[in-house]
Specification:
The relative contact order is 0.16. The strands form two sheets. A four-stranded antiparallel sheet has the order 2-1-7-6, with no helix packed on it. It has a three-stranded antiparallel sheet with strand order 3-4-5. With 123 residues, the protein is of the alpha+beta class. 22% of the residues lie in helices and 37% in strands. It is elongated, with a radius of gyration of 20 Å. It has helices spanning 4-26, 83-86, and strands spanning 33-38, 41-47, 52-58, 61-68, 71-77, 96-99, 104-109.
Length: 123
Amino acid sequence: MVKKGDIVLISLLLILCVIGLVVPAAQKDNSDTVIVTAGGSIHGEYPLGEDREITVSYGGHTCVIAVEEGNVRMKAADCEDKLCVKQGAVHSHNEIIVCLPSQITVYIGKSGADDGGMDTIAY
């Protein structure tokens, strides 16, 4: 038999679960920067909060990177396996997309030297 105290306890647990899901999503940090490298050198840095398409060519390959609604994905690549495109979108700090044939990497970090010391070699 379910008692009144059980219902209150279950209700409180459900409310805490919902808060645990909603609060992190609301605190998404759009001050992060999309950092694109080609051949180990920084090609460009772009705000994560601004939608755009970035075309990068290196080593005879071309990749199109899409920044949309706080997410970054490799929209198109002319490499054979297209694993970078199939990976899908990333949205959190220090997540990375790599296209090995074209030597193009895309990761989310902080602008300039304030990225916690992460680089594509150490990652």
